[in-house]
UniProtKB/TrEMBL annotation:
Lineage of origin: Eukaryota, Viridiplantae, Streptophyta, Embryophyta, Tracheophyta
Topology relative to the membrane: Single-pass type II membrane protein
Keyword match RNA-binding: no
Signal peptide: none
UniProt key word Zinc-finger: no
Molecular function GO labels: glycosyltransferase activity
Record pathway: Glycan metabolism
Protein name: O-fucosyltransferase family protein
GO biological process, one term: fucose metabolic process
Record-annotated membrane-spanning stretches: 62-86
Main location: membrane
Length: 599
């Protein structure tokens, strides 16, 4: 019975029906076998004589068996009701948790996909052993004291500050594409361009996308008045164009500027040469898309500071998002709070920052801690990568079909280029980490089986079949959909950017943030926010996918201790305190003189 129970306990909650049958069967067998032993304890199938005599002698055991079986059924029902609502791939007939409609995919249960079965077994054994040990390595804390010597100061006036321009060359309009995080970058880049060109910025608009299907505008996500007030000494900002310019046909006069008109990561001189003459001639230009159309170096220091001021100070979520974000954090932390208020929480949650009243008990830091994980393993990411994830021919055909529908330009490019094998792509670190790989990394870092993990997004390709290896190692996995009630989430349904804002809050305020793809905008902005406001106590785990691929390639021979050592060394090197390098995103790496002050 012990062996069966141990095996059953390692099964996912999604297999509870199987667990129920096995538990009740094994229980019946144990009780019956117990009553078929003779007085010496040996098995005797002839023991018992008359069946009626056997029943009278064993009525208590029979009653106990039925009561315990009933209890197992009740426990099973409770577990299904609590955990059964976790759905990692949404519904084919509705929008998923991020507001995007998914393609119709058969929702029959797929077989579990495991690429590293041997390592999973080693990890499972290691996690059992870890329960009886004290943590030798503590990835819950920043490993380098130097991190606490950098403090926020982008909002402070500097003697060389440019200030608001006296003359106005015209108006800049921006219609930003993408999701929440792409739009956030576009907003702050637009602020910098407006200052560079001595222009007035019209409050940015957000383009409606057939992918995101979210009609949200600036004021639905960020506090407009606060944004304008925070930047009033740096740049002119208005809510709308003046009447005499509203009637103009922007495209007809040549003032519509698309992403095709500006190179990616353009330099300030590019805007001065191409955009400024149009602005001065027509008094208005309209940037359409504006995705990553402003580089980071070379760039005037004061404009870099302005970008930081915009991102880390001026963009505050509206009270509706702050309130539900605060509730989400309370539920993740099980209504236990840190003893001291953190500026990280205050900046994101405003007046809804959880506070400690005389009627509430607080716990010391760490007692209610959680790890936030951003798994970039959505179907679009997986399909675009062209990697092999161990799902066989079915996976290959499914992803090929997805690429043909959603990435026609990629298909054309592949026809005219030399093919790169999936194995080579993995070796180069080009493949998204699977949930299985993410779980193995966390296990190697010493995070215990009971670690409370918040999963951002939750639209995992392959659904529960992909998540089984993860939840078998780390069962305490939650999402905003499992923590918040239907009514609490109702105001955000069909608004993907507002839902993403809740994930942003949960990830940024976590005790540890683990990313699986450093190129992700959410991961980049969250890690930058934690660097800026974390006070040296907001660790971020950044795996190097190329190095990790080399480690995983030895799956069939590598020992667990060696695996642990190599993974830990990789993560520790990624946590070193570095000043922002040339060309690096200031939103992701704000540790530089233009953005932060070193004590």
């Amino acid at each position: 019975m012990s062996k069966n129970n141990n095996n059953n306990n390692n099964k996912s909650v999604l297999r509870l029906k199987d667990y129920r049958v096995r538990s009740s069967d094994s229980l019946s067998k144990v009780v019956l076998l117990h009553n078929l032993k003779d007085d010496s304890g040996k098995f005797n199938p002839c023991k018992g004589g008359n069946r009626h005599t056997w029943f009278r002698r064993n009525v208590k055991s029979v009653a106990f068996m039925f009561l315990l079986t009933a209890f197992m059924f009740l426990l099973d029902s409770v577990m299904v009701s609590v955990f059964g609502s976790i759905n990692f791939h949404g519904s084919s007939s509705t929008r998923n948790s991020d507001g995007r409609e998914e393609d119709s995919v058969a929702h029959k249960e797929r077989p579990t996909v495991e690429m590293y079965g041997r390592l999973l077994n080693l990890a499972s054994s290691a996690l059992v052993a870890e329960e009886f040990k004290q943590e030798s390595l503590n990835f819950w804390e920043e490993p380098y004291q130097e991190a606490s010597k950098w403090t926020p100061c982008a909002d402070k006036r500097h003697p060389t500050s440019l200030g608001k321009p006296g003359e106005n060359n015209g108006y800049i309009m921006v219609s930003a594409n993408g999701g929440l995080n792409q739009q956030r970058v576009a907003i702050c880049n637009a602020v910098a361009v407006a200052s560079l060109l001595n222009a007035t910025l019209v409050l940015p608009k957000f383009l409606y996308s057939n992918v995101w299907k979210d009609p949200s505008q600036f004021g639905d996500i960020y506090q407009e008045d606060y944004f304008m007030r925070m930047l009033k000494d740096d740049v002119h900002i208005v809510q709308e164009l003046p009447l005499h310019l509203k009637s103009l046909d922007i495209e007809a006069i040549g003032s519509l500027i698309t992403d095709a008109d500006i190179v990616k990561e353009a330099k300030p001189i590019d805007y001065i040469r191409t955009v400024l003459p149009l602005l001065m001639k027509n008094k208005v230009v309209h940037f359409l898309g504006f995705g990553n159309r402003l580089g980071f170096d070379p760039f005037p220091p004061e404009l870099q500071r302005l970008r930081c001021k915009c991102d880390f100070h001026a963009l505050k979520f509206v009270p509706k998002i702050q309130e539900v974000g605060s509730l989400l954090i309370k539920k993740i932390r099980k209504f236990k709070y840190h003893a001291a208020e953190r500026q990280l929480d205050k900046q994101l949650l405003g007046d809804f920052t959880p506070s400690i009243s005389s009627k509430e008990n607080y716990v010391e830091r760490g007692s209610s801690r959680y790890l936030a994980l951003h798994l970039r393993f959505e179907e679009d990411m997986v399909a675009y990568s062209q990697c092999d994830f161990g799902g066989g021919e079915h996976e290959k055909k499914e992803l090929e079909a997805y690429r043909e529908v959603h990435f026609p330009l990629l298909i054309e490019r592949l026809k005219n280029s030399k093919p790169v094998s999936p194995a080579e792509l993995r070796k180069l670190g080009k493949c998204p980490l699977t949930p299985e790989e993410a779980a193995l990394v966390l296990a190697a870092l010493g995070f215990k089986r009971g670690t409370y993990i918040y999963l951002a997004g939750s639209r995992i390709y392959g659904g529960s079949s992909r998540m089984h290896p993860f939840t078998n190692l780390y069962p305490n996995l939650v999402t905003k959909e499992t923590l918040l009630t239907y009514n609490e989430l109702a105001p955000f349904r069909n608004f993907s950017s507002q839902l993403a804002a809740l994930d942003f809050i949960a990830c940024a305020t976590s005790d540890v943030f683990a990313m699986t793809d450093s190129g992700s905008q959410l991961s980049s902005l969250v890690s930058g926010f934690r660097t800026y406001y974390g006070d040296g106590h907001a660790p971020t785990l950044r795996p190097n996918k190329k190095r990790l691929a080399a480690i995983f390639s030895e799956n069939s021979t590598i020992g667990w201790t060696t695996f642990e050592d190599r993974v830990r060394k990789m993560i520790e090197e990624g946590q070193r305190v570095r000043v922002r390098g040339s060309g690096r995103s200031i939103y992701r790496q704000p540790r530089c003189p233009e953005c932060m002050c070193r004590l």
